[in-house]
Amino acid sequence: MMTARGKWTQLAVLALVIALLPLFFPSGYYYRVGALIFVNALSVVGLVILIGYAGQISLGHAGFAGIGAYACALAPEHLGLHPGLAVILGAVVSGIMALLIGRPILRLKGYYLAVATLGFGILVSMVLTNERALTGGPDGMSVEDLGLRALLRDLGWRLSGGEFWYGVSGFVLLIGAWLALNLFDSPTGRAMRALHGSEVAASTVGVDVARQKLRAFVISAVYASVAGSLLALQNGYITPDVAGFMHSIEMVTMAVLGGVGSVLGATLGAAILTLLPQVLTVFAEYEQLVLGAVMIVVMIFLPQGLLPSIARRIRGRGE
Amino acid sequence: MKLAIRTTLGILAAGVALPIAAQAEIRLGASVSATGPAAFLGDPEAKTIEMMVEEINAAGGINGEEIALTLYDDGGDPNKARTFATRLVEDDEVVAIIGGSTTGTTMSILDVAEDEGIPFISLAGAISIVDPVRDYVFKTPHTDRMACEKIFADMIAQGITKVGMISGTDGFGASMQAQCSDVAGAQGVEIVADETYGPQDADMTPQLTRIRNTEGVQAVLNPGFGQGPAIVTRNFAQLGFDIPLYQSHGVASDAFIELAGADAAEGVRLPGTALLIGDLLAEDDPQYKVVTEYAAAYQAKYDQAPSTFAGYAHDAVALMVDAITRAGEADPDAIRDALEETQGFVGTTGTYSFSPKDHLGLDLTAFRMLQITDGGWKQLD
Fold it and tell me: What stretches pass through the bilayer (chain A) (predicted)?
């Protein structure tokens, strides 16, 4: 279905879009929206690996985003760690958490797995809300600046906050997409897709089902964590909302809308769902209504998600 | 199906084209939490801002120029608030921003306002918004700390020194609990019990029983917002406490008395603003005119009484309009300077006097100690 050529084409398309889009930006505000889309897309690409490749569901990935975000807020303050290193620390912590909780809960299937991951997300969000002495509680806490922008300024390259984060988030998304696309055709990726198709069949041909599921879960957790860190760093302020239940749902919705098996599709889904609230400010009251309607229409008419369905249709017509 | 895609694209295209529309003279931006968990703050704030801008424009605008208001609903999400703040500054090119219903959203907007040099009046309570003072950031609500100080001062006057505290774990309750614990010692009050409840809890009898069993407790203080304090008040009455119950300014509304029941709420004390007791104010009270006029206009337009939080938005708009009038031009820096020079400006919350060292401009006199009596309010000081 997807070849090596397909991989490079997809990456090239993504890179071109990220690089050329700013030419059409009428104001600095669009850089901010673009950066948000890339951050959301990054965590959704992680979900593509978990849901699209391995066929497992998670409704708690905002928990990992929360861990990544608060790592960036807490580590510099309490451990004196540079915020950049805190991103890595957050990713490591998220990975270990995913490993620990993934082992028992990935034995569950379907609804049970969804509920267990949901529980994890809510737990993280509750800890962040209630450990006030550490996290500032529901009011949140500020995040130290990365310092990279000031460094660039000293080197004579002046960037606005929006431009800088547009570049950084776009770059990280490219790396994330590249890794995810590489994984697709690797032995691990094939094993994941095999267990997606049928766990029984996969284990008969020698796939270690539990191990592959766990691997997908940990990888996607690291994606969500890095995305959470990027969000915290660019916002400069973080509240427990980032780990909230709604954020988890939003991520899954983005993945499903764009096409859960496709990296580009996930990015498209993230773009649409990040843009919609901005576009719909005029009808703020109907925002949820429109979002719901879009989801229903897509689910009924394009069950594979936007991008794969459209691509298939175009290909179908060409033949 | 094709139609669905085309419609989606159409909506996206329309959104890109929309921001060009605003062409009026003074561009005022606002981002409040009109929906979501903080809607109790943002909804009356949005209504107030819209009503006042309409009124001002109908009366000929500021210095002959109309206000063009751009108001966004951030849903209480700090991430959205930051995006909207960026949008207001970069895309809508506003000269001033009002908003930030919660501390989280305010802290997100604040960064953008400071960065771009746009005056910003926040509607959130935390002291960290104006301490340390930031050049372009002001706020209208008194801090939680001031509410604590007002309550403790009243307790000391009653000879109460040992207090049992029960607070909600929501943003409002948690923040005020921290401030009250922090300031109690300095005022000679000792917190002898410290209980919490979740914002959705339906029964606080166990926590209250524990407080009652605490040695020497002389009063109960309940920092919180929403249904929690009403339930605390009802449970408090059911348990037959014979010590006073203090609530916070978070429940200073008639709705609280209805929710708790007039019998249970009888004798409850809390700090409130003049807005709550507009009809009880003496006619020579400095706030009488502004409070009664605003309350009447709001009542007429929305058929409900304005809340304390609505009053914060009223004062923010009024202060901003006053500053723009005095600045004589809609230039962000000129407005900022004029704001900082504001002296003795009477609002619904209190009388504001800003200075380079003080961007809150209120003192404890802004609070009035109130007691619920016969299902209504009575001013104590």
Answer: 36-55, 85-103, 110-128, 164-184, 255-276, 288-307
